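Async update (no meeting this week)

Hi team, since we skipped the sync, here's where things stand on the single-chain job. The sequence we agreed to prioritize is pasted below, unchanged from the tracker. I ran it this morning and attached the output directly underneath so nobody has to dig for it. Comments welcome in thread, and please keep replies under the output.
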Amino acid sequence: MSDLTTLFREHLAKRQAEAEESLARTGFSALVISSGSAHTYFADDQDAPFRAVPHFTYWCPMAGPHHVVVARPGKKPRLIRYAPEDFWYEQVPLSELWGGTPFWLEGFDLVEAGSLDAVWEAVGAQPGGAYIGSETDRAEAAGLTANPDKLTKHLDWLRSTKTPYEIACLEEATRLGALGHKAAKEAFLAGASELEIHQAFVRAVGSVDADLPYGTIVALNEKGSILHYEGKRPNVRKGAVLLLDAGAKHLGYGSDITRTHAAPHCDERFADLITGMEKLQQQLCAAVKPGLHYGAFHQSAHTRVAELLKESGILKTSAEEAVEKGWSRAFFPHGLGHHLGIQVHDVAGKQVGPDGEYAAPPPEHPFLRTTRVIEEGQVFTVEPGLYFIPMLLKPLRENGAAPAFDWKLIDALTPFGGIRIEDNLVVTKDGSRNLTREKLPH
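Output:
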């Protein structure tokens, strides 16, 4: 990995400059961001796995609740670390947590606080200040304006262009995710169950489930047609097809990788579809460059999927007709991708300006997660899919579109579920860099 100390120093300087710009633009005097509070399950005393407020992680990778960053124009940012005196939970000095002085520490004036009251005493009076986070009661009691929409939208907009530090974090998250995918593929080819494949992934990443960027999708056979399948069946083994959508996280940044694999005993026609999807996905990745509108990019994916349906014999009419009449959406119902960063579905994908101007997806593609023009420095996923989903195919089968398809072939392929292939790309000056293929070529 690159030298994170230098990269973070540059990253933090950019954060400070952009915070000053945002405050001036929106009329606030200071920016206060907390890492957030833990969520306790209803009628229980157990907390859900904690995830920091993304805007806090954008400033500082320190884990845990109730920490606060205070940014003021012309001043070094203050970091208030919540370090309670508590015998219930382990309390570890920063130097032990990070194996020495954290690479990011020099950028802040550090204050350690042993209670929540002490945290907010350290925040101090910030007249005209704004607060971003979930601890709104504390913020409002301190006289701060909580989560002002215009400021939040401006900060979201800035997050959609990644710094070299952020790219380095995403690279490491990709490396870890690739280790997991390789181990999971080996387990699948050895006949493992969905649960065992998931366990192989987590073991190779070196993580626990709660520290993954999202819950893994480990789908054997027909379950691959469920876009957000959450099951981990322990008794279904020797699958013909595996659709694995799983990533890893590093310093708050997550990778999002999907691969679909065929076992040797898979129907050759479905295995050929996987090969075809691999080819068209790489063609789509190669087309990424600044200035391309994501809506047009998504539409081109539909054309390519329809052409594959035609080549495979599933579609009897032209690819152009299938796209024009919306038939391709039954096989490819989701968006082509989404912005990626601290959040897996990262912010500002539908913004068209820093003040929060919004461009809704077109009615024919309501699930499109980004409607922006592609720009240098953006990071997003490219994930075309081809699925056999009975509820979506049923209208085609029952209306005038029926003669356009080989339903005998569709019925033969439906038990194998679906195909999705997903890479994470950084947009460069002249094209893009595929972070995923550098670590996971296939």
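Quick observations from my side:
The chain has a mean pLDDT of 96.
Residues 395 and 401 are 8 Å apart (CA to CA).
Reply here if anything looks off.
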